[in-house]
Design brief:
heterodimer, B: mainly beta, nine-stranded antiparallel beta sheet, 4 helices
Chain lengths: 14, 257
């Protein structure tokens, strides 16, 4: 089983 | 006052076709640099970044930075009414809640105005750090599109593995498995048909094919696609827009639980 990561885990709000 | 005149109006039509199914609503930002957009899909798994540089427009007037919230489905509907050879001009007045798309036929014998309502969109602008990628694959965009389409009839996810020998796209599903290897090939006559791999270390990542297939709707914008991969970052799928900029899709990987 694979877990889908979230883009917000990598890029932060400015 | 905003006035952007794009002689090759078909570019904007293609951009909207590439992103309208991924993102519903987005803010288009207009500045001296150009016309840009950054938006995530509703699940926050993918992000699209678009830049059309001001120099690429025949006429580019943007008196002050402006952010225009648009429903991309509605914008695509309006742009579908422009002919492929039409010149497209975007116009907006300061403080206005509408944007006007003007379409001119190449012979100037048909001129159309479409006015679209803008919307207030509360969106967060993300900082995308400059990154060194472990592997960069440059390949024909049509080939990448074909691979994603073919693999999605077998499975839901694609494992992209890059080694010095080539790039491997693998999937598995109920009916079986599939592996497609594209070897480095930079000796072809036409540069747009080459597959070129720059790699500092091997990398293997898993992604949802549903998103990859959505990104390939940008294929008409460029004959070449670039995949940038690092083991600890979202993949970047980039289509360069000739003379103007780029459309970049970022997709977060799937990881073993």
């Amino acid at each position: 089983p694979c877990l889908q990561r979230n883009i917000l885990d990598y890029f932060n709000g400015e | 006052m905003l006035e952007l005149r794009l002689v090759q109006g078909s570019l904007l039509k293609k951009v909207l076709e590439a992103i309208k199914d991924l993102v519903n609503d987005a803010n288009f930002d207009c500045s001296a640099t150009g016309f840009s957009l950054q938006a995530m899909d509703s699940s926050h798994v993918a992000l699209v970044a678009l830049l059309l540089r001001s120099e690429g427009f025949e006429h580019y007037r943007c008196d002050r930075n402006l952010s225009m919230g648009m429903n991309l489905g509605n914008m695509a509907k309006m742009l579908k009414c422009a002919g492929n050879d039409d010149i497209i001009t975007l116009k907006a007045d300061d403080g206005s809640d509408t944007v006007t798309f003007m379409f001119e036929s190449p012979t100037q014998d048909k001129i159309s105005d479409f006015e679209m309502k803008l919307m207030d969109i509360d969106s967060e602008h993300l900082g995308i750090p400059e990154a060194e990628y472990h592997a960069i694959v440059r390949m024909p965009s049509s080939e990448f599109g074909r691979i994603c389409k073919d693999l999605s009839s077998i499975g839901d996810t694609v494992v992209i593995s890059v080694t010095k020998e080539g790039v491997k796209f693998s999937t598995r599903g109920d009916i079986g498995t599939a592996n497609i290897v594209c070897r480095q090939n930079n000796t072809v006559d036409k540069p747009e048909e080459a597959t070129i791999i720059e790699m500092t270390e091997p990398v293997s990542l898993t992604f949802a094919l549903r998103y990859m297939n959505s990104f390939t709707k940008a294929t008409p914008l460029s004959s070449i696609v670039t995949l940038s991969l690092s083991s600890d970052l979202p993949v970047v799928v980039e289509y360069k827009i000739a003379e103007m900029g780029y459309i970049r899709f970022y997709l977060a990987p799937k990881i073993e639980e």
